[in-house]
Amino acid sequence: MAYELHYWPTIQGRGKFVRLALEQAGAEYVDVARLPEDEGGGPDALMNGLQDEPLRPPFAPPYLKDGDVVVGQTAAILLYLGPRLGLVGDGEQDRIWTHQIQLTLADIVAETHDTHHPVGNSLYYKDQKTEALRKAEEFRRNRIPKYLHWFERVLMRNPAGPDHLVGDRVSYADLSLFQLVEGLRYAFPKASAGALDDTPLVTALAASVAHLPRIEAYLASDRRIPFNEQGIFRRYPELDG
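Structure (tokenized):
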């Protein structure tokens, strides 16, 4: 039975981290909301799914269905998929460490979102632009370098070598770090360039993930949704200083 991924059909967002794992594993999956409505897809199907699981409803997309199992929250979905897709180490220590890295990635993803929506999600960017400019300056100067240098240290201290965050093979954390780097390059091209110059191992990992055969094919396909100004990573030149 194919996995069912439920996420917004027009943005990369948090669903992209799950899509990358499914693509790298060559897993059979359905991106439900991207299906035509007459095939049970579309945004209505996505929203209906939030109401169809009354006992354990996911809070918001993304959520994954695997038969009777429903998992919400990106990091929890990847924790569930990791051992099933061969994208995490076999031992408990590796699994928990990979999950910890993913949770840290979730933190910077949330901070990235808050650069353009620092006051409230229900407000338009133009209604909180003054606050966004201040938030983005702090993010550029302090938060991007702090996070990327932490990932650099993780790579340096990996006993198996600096080619991966955990162990000696690709994990879902590697794929997610690639997505973070790509998103920062899109939203903050000037600020991220300097930070990535200072973190060559992070830069090298992102490049190696982009050239994994299945990821490379996915990025070139119409399954990949381009970055845009409705997702988490948004390019507002004024926020890049």
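The radius of gyration is 18 Å. The chain has a mean pLDDT of 95.
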